[in-house]
Amino acid sequence: MAHSASEVFGVYDGSAYIDFTVVDADNIQITNYDDTKSYTVNYMRQDKYNFTTNMNDVTVHYASSLKDSVDRNITQTNDLATENSILKRQMLEVLVRLDALEGGSN
After folding, report:
1. Looking at the DSSP assignment, which residues form a beta bridge with residue 7?
2. Among 31, 36, 51, 69, who pairs with 63 as Cys (CB 3.0-4.6 Å)?
């Protein structure tokens, strides 16, 4: 493995899970190992604190009720639909202008 592991979660050949045994922090043993295949290993780095950071500030908003949550989702969905409609119109205008610049052969 590229880095020492504190825990190995799985070894895969493509999407197929492969049986394995952890030998030590740097080595695993794969059952029926084939050196012509490429394996993927999911693991937690032993020195993870050198490669992560603590979150300093997280803002969270909770809806006061299920109804408020549903209403907010509906509003956001409607906003996205409106934004999508506006973008479609703008893209159509761009395509019309591009066609006019190219001589309007279509």
Report:
1. 44
2. 69
Contact 45, 5 (CB under 8 A): yes
Q: Give the pLDDT mean for 69-92.
A: 94
- 18 band by pLDDT with thresholds 50, 70 and 90: confident
Q: How far does the chain reach from its first CA to its final CA, in angstroms?
A: 57
Give the Cα-Cα-Cα angle 78, 81, 83 (nearest 5 degrees): 110
| Cβ-Cβ contacts under 8 Å for 73 (sequence gap 6 or more) | none
- Among positive and negative, which fits the CA dihedral 50, 21, 39, 18? negative
Read off the tokens for 54.
Answer: 């603590």
Structure tokens at 36: 């012509």
**pTM of this structure:** 0.38
When pLDDT is averaged across residues 69-97 and rounded to a whole number, the result is 94
Give the closest residue to 46 by CA, choosing from 67, 62, 27, 59: 27
Q: Write the single-letter amino acid at 83.
A: E
| pLDDT band, very low/low/confident/very high, at 48 (cuts 50, 70, 90) | low
